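Final report, results section. Input specification for complex C-07:
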Amino acid sequence: MSSWQSYLDEHRERFLAELQEFLRIPSISSLPEHAEDVRSAGEWVAARLRAAGLPTVELLETGGHPVVYAEALAGADLPTILIYGHFDVQPVDPVALWSTPPFEPEIRDGRLYARGASDDKGNMLVPILAIEALLKTEGRLPLNVKLLLEGQEEIGSPQLAPFLAAHRERLACDMVISADNGQWSETEPSLLTTLRGMCALQIDVRGANTDLHSGIYGGTVQNPLHALVQLLASMRGPDGKVLVDGFYDDVRPLTAAYREHIARVPFDEEAYKAQLGVEELFGEAGYTPLERIWARPTLEINGLWGGFQGEGTKTVLPNTAHAKLTCRLVADQSPARVAEAVREHVRRHTPPGVRVTCEVLPGTAQPYRLPEDHPGNVAAAEVLTELYGRAPYYTGSGGSVPVCELFQNVLGVYTVGFGFALDDERFHAPDEFYRLSSFYRGQEGYCRLLHRLARG
Amino acid sequence: MSSWQSYLDEHRERFLAELQEFLRIPSISSLPEHAEDVRSAGEWVAARLRAAGLPTVELLETGGHPVVYAEALAGADLPTILIYGHFDVQPVDPVALWSTPPFEPEIRDGRLYARGASDDKGNMLVPILAIEALLKTEGRLPLNVKLLLEGQEEIGSPQLAPFLAAHRERLACDMVISADNGQWSETEPSLLTTLRGMCALQIDVRGANTDLHSGIYGGTVQNPLHALVQLLASMRGPDGKVLVDGFYDDVRPLTAAYREHIARVPFDEEAYKAQLGVEELFGEAGYTPLERIWARPTLEINGLWGGFQGEGTKTVLPNTAHAKLTCRLVADQSPARVAEAVREHVRRHTPPGVRVTCEVLPGTAQPYRLPEDHPGNVAAAEVLTELYGRAPYYTGSGGSVPVCELFQNVLGVYTVGFGFALDDERFHAPDEFYRLSSFYRGQEGYCRLLHRLARG
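Structure output:
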């Protein structure tokens, strides 16, 4: 047994007690009355990092809640990683639905119940404990480690972009390892390698200068609702395939190897349909449901409105109609190029008798795809295979994870997810919990990962 | 000069003074505080009918505002007409926009300004004065005349249907002559011969059992907004032609003679576009704008909604979508048959992955078309030609006139419009007025019409 493993085993009880202490701090970032608690949690983290033996530990101001930055440098010729996590938590409402108070951690059946246990305090403490074990047993880390632990992930990290930009040189690294992450199940590891990007648009259709009586005028002027319906119908085929010219131009084709990776991931279509209450799934022909969510772009109407929405009948021929759209994007689509393709489609397909505008809305996200041969991806896969006795699934997410885009844009590096939450752990909901098995497996995993990454 | 014409000339001043007296009664049917005024107006009308010499005059209760009924029967072998009008008026808000108080009639430049002057007290008094002139100068009327003058037209005649049903035998007639009507211009007469009918429907689309995140689920389930858009787009061609199977089955074809009638009616397309603020008109190929409004059916979305309608972006894949539709119908379409055709279209074109319902809403109206050879139509046209020195335009209305449908359904007779309002007389708006020329011409017109109708 390696000496760091012995160290982890010897200090199990203390580490668990420390996590419980950390969980008692109600660091809810969205509630102003908890601002001091968020700061206290940051100070707790900073103190814990110092106790772990990291030589540089600082609480840095962001304009919002503070960031904890730490580093333990091992040598200029060694790789550098930046470990990311967060010490703020979600609110606890409805508090009446908690079996035990959210900030009084309690262990039941091998699970530690508390707000933030899984998202992200448990996961975030794991690499700190691993670093302590390595420092205490080996005297030094096998590579350069920086940690960036923030206090406002749950409110969308509003100051993180300028903070990263302001500290770009200090945060320079070869990759980010995100501890705000999870695994597929207790027995099946996974690596999140794709995120869809997004662009958002609004279409506004205007007809006559006022709402008109549908009897008196109907048959002589274009109805903006019909014009909008016709325009939107022209954008998608019956299976949801997008018919906007150029929409798929930059989509990286799915390789056979990548499709095999996705095919390995368990997907129970019957359970999925039952969960959503639909009789059949729907989507682009030629792709599996997981391929369609993780690796194919979409165009969806998010909102549609115009005319009369009340009870009964109003014989109005309205003079405006509106729709909001988002496109979910995959590598290597550009949100700006796709938005322009949609705008061009609107220009070319505007029905007669109305004026149509199509504006890009805020909410852009770049699609993200971690290369399969990225050293962090390769190393994480090897370590997960050792830990679980089986290779990880390569998974994606249909939504965006803004920090991945931030790290790529500002620091120019990919983010490798390496965390141990599981999807059933009720983050953001009452009775959030974290498995103690994940807490211990994670510590071993981080010790192995740091050594594996040091080998390049 | 006929003796009735001399009588009309002799009593011009008195008749005008009587109209002004009638207009001073603020008989606003929609405001409860004016209920007694509506009744007073009815009593004024009843007294005026008695003074005119009608042997039977009654104020009848309806459950709402009263009705005035009168009759002067001339002989069982003679035709019977029922003259319709109303003595209630619209509210006067915004009262500050009136040049003179709405219930203090004032004559300026040959126009009598007051609420109700044109709609419908002036028009309604005209046939009473004509009847007086005939009775006083000829001793009897040339045919059987009944009058039904109501006090709640401006609130949709809520008790008129049961009232007509309850008095069906007493109201029996060969046709209704509606004094609540107008002419094309001061120099151009017109006869309203077609009204469009209507049916109304609501379409509701349901997908998953809850709103979904468009990133996490988009690409695997049908979006009800897209399903609705696709369904609605399938109902109309690019020019608005309805693509619902069977929709046009019962439409009476436009005869060449009828199209010539419509073609005679002045229509200034540039002025119409400028009024509506549109750059081009829109509608079914092969028909003129007036044909499309008066003689062709339409299907219009009146309201459309689902998903997010606020500022910015919400990445929701909503689970419901809704639309309200009305179809405007022409002879001989049946609202029930057309509604069923639309429902069948919805059933046959429901996209996969959603459940769709299509329910008929209240608001049905039968289309109406007065036959060109109807004796009332022929007689009115002849009299208008004598009065104006030119033949009337045959016009239509794209909307419904509920009393026409009521008289047809309950009494089984057509309604011939014979009134002298002009469209610019600001009914329902501040500074409503009635032309004195219309007041006098109308009296002559009714004397001529009663004689003409008596000849059969």
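Chain B has a mean pLDDT of 96. Residues 117-138 of chain B form the longest helix (22 residues). This concludes the modelling results for the funded period.
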